[in-house]
Amino acid sequence: MQSTEAIVIRLTPLTETSLIVHWFTETYGLVKTVAKGARRSKSKFNGQLDLFFGGEISYALSRSSELHPLREVAIRQWREGLRKNYTSTLLAAYCCQLMEMAVEPGHPEPGLHNLLKRALDHLDATPPGLRALRHFESELARLLGVLQDPSRAESSLRDALGALPASRRELIERLSPASDFG
C-alpha cells in the first residue's frame, strides 16, 4: 500500500460507476488510480474526488497496469474558491496541464508538487491575474532547469515541452488589462 500527499489534476470516467483519477503526488509524481464505484451515490469516495482537491491518498500498486486501485482518500484542501470564478478554474487547469506535460509518471518531483500546491492555494484565495500565470511559468521553467531568461519563460517552456496547453491563449485574453474594459 502506498500513501502520499496528492492533488487531483484530472478525472476521467472509466465505466458507469468508476473513475480514473490522475494525481500529482509529493512522493510518487504523477499517479493514475481507479476509484471503483466512485460515481455511485453511496460510494465511500462520494464528495472526495474533484479537480484541485488535495489531501492524503492510499492506493495499492497494480502489477499489470499503470492504473492502481485507490483505497482511501482524506481531503484537506477543498479549494472552493477556484469554483467561484471561471478564469480561476481555467488558470488552475492550465497549471495542472503543464505539470502533466513536464513530469514523467512515477518520478517524484517534490519541488514541482509544492509549486502546484502553492499556485492552487493562491488561486483559491486571490483573483486570477496575468502576474500569477507568468510567475507560475517562470518558476516551472526554473525548477525544470530550462529558464534562459526570466522574461521569456513561456518560450523556454514551449521549447522544453514541445508545446503549451491550448487554453493559454484564452487565459492571456481573459487576464490581459484590455479585457477589463471590453
Features:
182 residues, alpha+beta, OB fold (Dihydrolipoamide Acetyltransferase, E2P), 2 domains
How would you describe this protein?
The protein is built from five helices and five strands, in the order E-E-E-E-E-H-H-H-H-H. 31% of the residues are buried. The model has no long low-confidence stretch (mean pLDDT 94). Strand 4 and strand 5 form a beta hairpin. The chain has 182 residues and is of the alpha+beta class. It has two domains: 2-77, Beta Barrel (OB fold (Dihydrolipoamide Acetyltransferase, E2P)), CATH 2.40.50.140; 80-181, no CATH class.
Provide the spatial order of strands within the biggest beta sheet: 1-2-3-5-4
Strand content: 15-25%
As a percent range, the share of helical residues equals: 25-40%
Our count of domains comes out at: 2
Measured distance between first and last alpha carbons: 53 Å
Count of helical stretches: 5
Helix- and strand-based class?
alpha+beta
What is the number of beta strands?
5
Give the uncertain stretches in residue-range form: none
Helix-strand string? EEEEEHHHHH
Largest sheet, in brief, is: 5 strands, mixed, barrel
